[in-house]
């Protein structure tokens, strides 16, 4: 049986989303967006912005399911 320390401010709870984890998530999101922008700049012929927006909107809807 584990011994619990009463002086522990977390009370044995696991904290998954600390400040560092949020910073890493934001950096990954920025990297993904940058990769998409670079991809759009390099493709020929370029697709209209509406196509990119529709793709983004569809992917976010799929994540919510």
Describe this structure in words.
- It is elongated, with a radius of gyration of 21 Å.
- The protein has 65 residues and is mostly helical.
- The protein has two helices and no strands.
- The model has no long low-confidence stretch (mean pLDDT 76).
- The protein has helices at residues 19-42, 49-64.
- The longest helix is centred in the middle third of the chain and has 24 residues, at 19-42.
How many runs of DSSP E, i.e. beta strands?
0
- Major β-sheet profile: none
Instruction: Give me the strand/helix succession.
Output: HH
N-to-C terminal Cα separation, in Å?
40 Å
State mean pLDDT (0 to 100 scale): 76
Tell me the β content: under 5%
Structural class: mainly alpha
CA-atom Rg in angstroms: 21 Å
Shape type? elongated
| Helix share bin | 55-70%
Number of helices: 2
Query: Which ranges are low-confidence, i.e. pLDDT below 50, for 5 or more consecutive residues?
Result: none
Summary?
The protein is mainly alpha-helical and about 60 residues long. It has helices at about 20-40, 50-65. The mean pLDDT is about 75.
Give a quick set of tags describing it.
65 residues; 62% helix; mainly alpha; elongated
Helix and strand topology:
Elements: H1 19-42, H2 49-64
């Amino acid at each position: 049986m584990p011994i619990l320390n009463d002086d522990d401010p977390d009370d044995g709870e696991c904290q998954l989303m600390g400040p560092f984890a949020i910073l890493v998530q934001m950096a990954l999101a920025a990297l993904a967006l940058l990769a998409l922008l670079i991809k759009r700049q390099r493709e020929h012929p370029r697709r209209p912005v509406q196509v990119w927006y529709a793709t983004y909107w569809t992917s976010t809807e799929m994540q919510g399911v």
